[in-house]
Every structure is written in structure tokens, then in C-alpha cells.
Design a protein that fits this description.
Largest sheet of chain B: 4 strands, antiparallel
Number of strands of chain A: 10
Strand order of the largest sheet of chain B: 3-10-5-8
Oligomer: heterodimer
Strand content of chain B: over 45%
CATH superfamily of chain A: Jelly Rolls
Number of helices of chain B: 0
Largest sheet of chain A: 4 strands, antiparallel
Number of strands of chain B: 10
Strand order of the largest sheet of chain A: 3-10-5-8
Distance between the termini of chain A: 11 Å
CATH topology of chain B: Jelly Rolls
Radius of gyration of chain B: 16 Å
CATH architecture of chain B: Sandwich
Number of helices of chain A: 0
Order of helices and strands of chain B: EEEEEEEEEE
CATH class of chain B: Mainly Beta
Shape of chain A: globular
Chain lengths: 135, 144
């Protein structure tokens, strides 16, 4: 079993008293202190605004995983719409939008591997997306 | 008036070579380089029911605007989990110590962020959850 640690720090001066948050989590299999065993790391270039099935449930053999997705673009106007839901057969049909990942943004979340994770680029001019799945 | 988020994911042994992912973002308004300027601050709630609760209420005004959500399960027992969902769609389970950081599209009023302390029983004790929302112009007070 491998040791995987994820850390996050948030710093904000929006409020008069600044906000500082820092936490580190060891990533384990569901409900245990057993380390993870598998990592998938992928970079894709998408050249249409069609919804793309980015991470399929079939690509993970567990029911608990951690997903990191990164939009490495430096263009703040370009984004990916990230959705999750019933993938259906054939073309992805995910309907629940999680959020929009603008250029420079990342997201990190636990995934219950019930439904595929899809993305739709905002433009059709070769947008790069990176993701890693730990399970 | 900036808000930054930094994530680091490291492992010396999940692959043949060490893994070290590190990224810092500045939270900006949708499609621009202007900083997000509103926040709920850091909140803490204690979940003591397996019933699903609304953590953050979706606001249709927020559609097409930027928002970032941070949630952490502060339970020290790794078996105690909180199921996170948007509307009726489950996303994943935050086990004790786990956190998430996501952009949040409030596509409509049903796109609320919901949590359920699914593993809670009267003998497990409360499951503490902390969360923060950083966002732009949406007036969340209309949902209070």
C-alpha cells in the first residue's frame, strides 16, 4: 500500500480579519487507514465543445477515489464545464454541473465512482485538461 | 483582495517515481482576472443525523458566476464519512480527515450543496464539518 498525502492551504484577505486554512490528509481506501494502490495520470487535448467522458467508472476498480483535475490554460476566459451523473450509453449525457474550471483553476474531490465525470470545453481551439485519479 | 488556494499531492511509492503535484490558483471572477470579493468565511457545523442537510443553498443568480467551495470532514475516525451531493447527484464521500475544493456552478436553485452524515449513529458522536465559500456578486442573504 502506498502513502499518498494531499495538502491544501487557503489564504484570503477578503474579510477584515484574514482567513488562513491549512490541512493535510492522508488518502486512504474507504473507511480505513489502508493506503491507496493505484494512480492514473492523464493529459488530454480537446478540440471541440462537445461533452467528453473524461473519467469513466470502468476505469476505477473501487468505490472510493480521489480526483484532481487541472485546467493549465493561462487564458482566464476559457473554461471546462465539469459534470457528473448518469453517463448512459453512447454519448455522455451527464447533466449535473459541478462547476466551471477556468484557466489556471484546479479541483480536488472524493469520488464515489457511481457515475462518470465529464467535461465540455468552452471553445473548440485545443484546450488541454489534466487529471489524476487516486484509488 | 485576493484569495489563493494551493494544493499539494505527494507520494513516494504509489508509482515507480515519486509523485509531486503542486498548484496554486487565485480565485477570480468568472472569465476575468478580477479577484473574488465575497466569502462566507470559515464555518463549522456538527452533523448528528444521517438525514441529508443543505450546506450551501444554490442561488440562480450565481449561474455563470464563479464560486469555490472548500469542505473538510474534521472527524478523527477515518470510518466516519459525509456524503456530498449537488441536488440529487452524489459526488463522493469525505471520510474523516478528507477535504475537497471545487468550483460550484449554481445552475439553478436546485443546485444546492448537500451533506449527509451517512455513517452517523447515536454512538458515533457528532461529525464536525468545516466549510468556506468564496464567490462573486450573488446575494446569498436572499436565501437566509
Amino acid at each position: 500500500m502506498a502513502t499518498v498525502n494531499a495538502s491544501i492551504s487557503l489564504a484570503s484577505d477578503i474579510t477584515d480579519s484574514s482567513i488562513g486554512i491549512a490541512n493535510t490528509s492522508a488518502l486512504y481506501t474507504a473507511g480505513t487507514t489502508t493506503g491507496l494502490t493505484t494512480m492514473t495520470s492523464v493529459t488530454k487535448v480537446l478540440s471541440s465543445t462537445n461533452q467528453e467522458d473524461l473519467i469513466t467508472t470502468g476505469s476505477v476498480s473501487t468505490t472510493h477515489a480521489y480526483v484532481y483535475i487541472n485546467n493549465p490554460s493561462t487564458d482566464h476566459t476559457e473554461f471546462f464545464i465539469v459534470t457528473i451523473g448518469n453517463a448512459g450509453s453512447g454519448s455522455p449525457t451527464d447533466t449535473e454541473e459541478i462547476g466551471r474550471l477556468y484557466g489556471g483553476d484546479f479541483m480536488f474531490f472524493p469520488w464515489d465512482v457511481d457515475d462518470d465525470i465529464c467535461v465540455a470545453p468552452s471553445v473548440a481551439t485545443d484546450m488541454t485538461i489534466e487529471f489524476q485519479v487516486f484509488s | 483582495m485576493a484569495t489563493t488556494a494551493t494544493i499539494t499531492i505527494t507520494s513516494a511509492d504509489i508509482a515507480g517515481d515519486p509523485v509531486n503535484v503542486s498548484k496554486t490558483l487565485t480565485c477570480t471572477k468568472a472569465g476575468s482576472t478580477a479577484d473574488l470579493d465575497q466569502t462566507t468565511g470559515l464555518n463549522r457545523v456538527h452533523l448528528r443525523s444521517a438525514t441529508q442537510k443543505t450546506l450551501l443553498t444554490g442561488n440562480a443568480e450565481g449561474n455563470n458566476l464563479a464560486a469555490k467551495v472548500y469542505i473538510i470532514n474534521k472527524a478523527t475516525d477515518p470510518s466516519l464519512f459525509v456524503t456530498v451531493a449537488i441536488s440529487a447527484q452524489s459526488i463522493g464521500k469525505l471520510y474523516g480527515g478528507d477535504f475537497m475544493f471545487i468550483p460550484w456552478s449554481q445552475t439553478d436553485t436546485s443546485a444546492s450543496l448537500k451533506v449527509a452524515a451517512s455513517s452517523w449513529t447515536s454512538s458515533t458522536g457528532d461529525i464536525p464539518v468545516e466549510y468556506a465559500l468564496f464567490h462573486e456578486d450573488t446575494d446569498f442573504l436572499t436565501n437566509a
